[in-house]
Structures are given as structure tokens and as C-alpha cells.
Amino acid sequence: MPRYFGQAPHRHGSEPSAGVLLVNLGTPGGPDKRSVRRYLAQFLSDPRIVELPGKLWKPILHGVILRVRPARSAALYAKIWTPEGSPLQTGMATLSTRVQEALKVQRPGPIQVRYAMRYGEPAIGKVLREMAASGVRRLLVLPLFPQYSGTTTASVFDAVGAELSRWRWVPELRFVADYPTEVRYIEALARSVEAYWQRHGRAQRLLLSYHGIPEKYFRKGDPYFCQCQATARRLRERLDLSEDELIVSFQSRVGRQSWLKPYTEAVLQSLPGEGVRHVQVLCPGFSIDCLETLEEIALTNHARFLRAGGERFDYIPALNSGDDHVAALAELILRQGQGWAEFDPAWDAGRASAQQIASRARYEHVRGEPR
Ligand SMILES: C=CC1=C(C)c2cc3[nH]c(cc4nc(cc5[nH]c(cc1n2)c(C)c5CCC(=O)O)C(CCC(=O)O)=C4C)c(C)c3C=C
Ligand SMILES: [Fe+2]
Ligand SMILES: [Fe+2]
């Protein structure tokens, strides 16, 4: 792609401000074969997701996978699609609006909160250009993956970098890598479990099911597995559960190579044989409910557990746009933005900090430029 050092990601006359970009993985435009095919083609061509040489992978992807999987996945998406669209997309829209509101209450400064998807729409590049055009000069990128993985977090970083590499005037930039043991995130998870227990009682086991990655990526240094365990341990301690009562497993395996173990489906298959008739499942790695939770866990694995002799299976929803999640993210954002005037508790409209005066002075200089 030709480099384009585009001019005017700013507008003369608009005030500079700060922006927060929440990013999730992505979702197809519709639950039909064509949309899912387009989405999967983009997704599965990302070298962060599939680490095979293009020469080897391209024929498999186009010759086999994109002929079979789109129809299958589309049928699954159709089961969870709502009149408003994909749950992941509507969930991100609601969450970003609510985080924006929370920041307004805590901060009078101009902080714009937007969301984007790594694959599909709204695309990261497009949203970044819109933010710049409306005056955003300081950018905090927060991928909504609490546990870092090269396949997800780093891929978001690549997409942000690819977009900014074509800008003439890049913003000040901060990138949140992960938050697996962030106190308010753990607290939000714990409270959602406790609220569930209060309404429905406790199961014999709490199963934490995370999205898997190929085992090879873990052996090559991806910290994802360890961060999943770190979240699990903090949550187990906070809920005062024994090591037997809380189980960690990995779901959503694609392809034939070995992924992180134990596999969620294998665990659910074997629990009834060990006398566990009632299980509750939580997916702490999914910020928003999506295909992998609403279909794979709440429908497919639910049925699998009952077939294996289980009696009761409860899926505890993701944090979504609940108050505790919004508060946890708002706190994370304010802390990560420290030192930036818009995020600084000492900031007030009438008494700009030295830092802000400096940035305004730079801006005035630009405003005086001929167009
Ligand atoms: C093929 C390899 C894949 C890796 C590695 C992977 C890692 C990974 N994914 C998530 C979170 C999500 N995945 C979602 C969908 C999805 N994931 C894969 C494959 C890999 N993911 C595929 C092929 C799909 C598409 C659906 C399908 O055909 O099965 C989603 C979106 C779901 C939605 O509602 O749209 C999320 C979210 C994580 C956290 C992760 C590694 C840590
Ligand atoms: Fe995935
Ligand atoms: Fe000048």
C-alpha cells in the first residue's frame, strides 16, 4: 500500500482534546455466508492469528477453510443475532457510551470515547481518522482483552501502527497492554458471580473458560496462559474458593494443532463422571458477550454437559456494560492517562496546568499557519 502522509488530521479552529479508543476483536456485518466469509478472510489472513508462511497458508485458507467455515459460522451467528445486530457490536456501542458518561462525571476535561474493531466495522483506521479530525491530539488505546496475547492485543497494536504510519502528524499515544489482575476488574467479576449466587444458588464448580491459543505460541513466549491463571487465582482468592472448586479451561479451538489445555469441552464432558452435576461457567477474558460465549458456551457446551449426565449448567454473563465494568474501565483509563491534562484530577477549566498551556501554545502556532 502506498504511503500517504495525509495532511490535516486536525481542523483549524477546533480545540485539541484527548481520546480513548476501546477496541474489540470484530464481528461480521451480518449473519450470512458472504459477510462471514469477508470477515473470516480478513481475520485469518492476520499473521498474528495464523503464523504460517503465506505460501503454505493461503491455499489452505482460500481452498479449504473459506469454502467450508463461512456457512457453518453464519448458521451459528444467526442463532445469536439480534434485531439491532451482532451482540458484540451493540455491546461495544453501549459500553463506550457508558464509559464516556462515567468519565464526564469524574472529569470535566474533554475526553472522547470511541470504539473500533480489529476486523470488520467500525475499522480502527477509520475511527482514528475521525477522532483526529475532531481534534484529538492525545490518544489512549485500550484493547478490551484483559489478558495479553500476541494474537489479540499485539494485533490491535499493529493496526493502530499501520494507520498512524501514514499520518503526517501523529498524536501523543498510550497503549494499554493488559489488566489481568486490576483490582476493580477482579472485583467486577467477583461481584457478578456473587450476584448470580444470590439469585440462583451455588454450583459444585465454577469453571473459568478462556478463549484458547495454539500451544506453540505459549511455548514461544506468549504470556496469555500465565495471565489467564493470574486472573483465576485472584478471583479464586477473592471468592474464597478452594483449588478444587474453581477450574480453568480453554475453548474455541480452531484447526488440528494442539491448543492450550484443558479444553473446555473435555472438562464439561468429564465432570458428570466425577459426580459434578451442577456447574457454573464464567468467561473472564470476554469483556462483551459474543458468539464464543452466547453460542459456544451457553448453547453448545450447555447441551454437551447435559448429554454427559450433568443436571444443571449456568452461564454467568460477561461484564458487558454493567456498572462495575464501566467503573473498572474508567478507573483504568484515568490512571493510564495520568500526566495528561485532560485526565488529571487537578485539571479545571478555569485554571489550566502548565502542561496544558504549553500544548495550547503549540496549537496556536499551528492555527497561525497558512492552509
Ligand atoms: C484461528 C485462530 C484463532 C485464534 C488464535 C484466536 C484467538 C482469540 N480470539 C479471541 C476472541 C474472539 N474470537 C472471536 C471469533 C473468532 N475467533 C477465531 C479464531 C481464533 N481466535 C475465529 C475463526 C472466529 C470467528 C467465529 C468463528 O468462525 O468461529 C470473537 C468474536 C465473536 C463474535 O461474536 O463475533 C472474539 C471476541 C481471543 C480473546 C483470543 C486469544 C486470546
Ligand atoms: Fe477467536
Ligand atoms: Fe510554522
Automatic annotation (TrEMBL):
One Pfam assignment: Ferrochelatase
Pathway linked to the protein: Porphyrin-containing compound metabolism; protoheme biosynthesis; protoheme from protoporphyrin-IX: step 1/1
PROSITE patterns reported in the protein's UniProt record: FERROCHELATASE
Primary location: cytoplasm
Positions contributing to Fe(2+) binding: 211, 292
EC identifiers of the protein: 4.98.1.1
Top-level taxonomic group: Bacteria
InterPro entries in the cross-refs: Ferrochelatase (IPR001015), Ferrochelatase_AS (IPR019772), Ferrochelatase_C (IPR033644), Ferrochelatase_N (IPR033659)
Keywords linked to the UniProt accession: Cytoplasm, Heme biosynthesis, Iron, Lyase, Metal-binding, Porphyrin biosynthesis
Enzymatic reactions: heme b + 2 H(+) = protoporphyrin IX + Fe(2+); Fe-coproporphyrin III + 2 H(+) = coproporphyrin III + Fe(2+)
Coiled coil: none
Localization annotation: Cytoplasm
Keyword NAD: no
Class of the enzyme per the UniProt entry, highest EC level: lyase
Role of this protein: Catalyzes the ferrous insertion into protoporphyrin IX.
Family: Belongs to the ferrochelatase family.
Protein name: Ferrochelatase
Source species: Dokdonella ginsengisoli
Gene, per the UniProt record: hemH
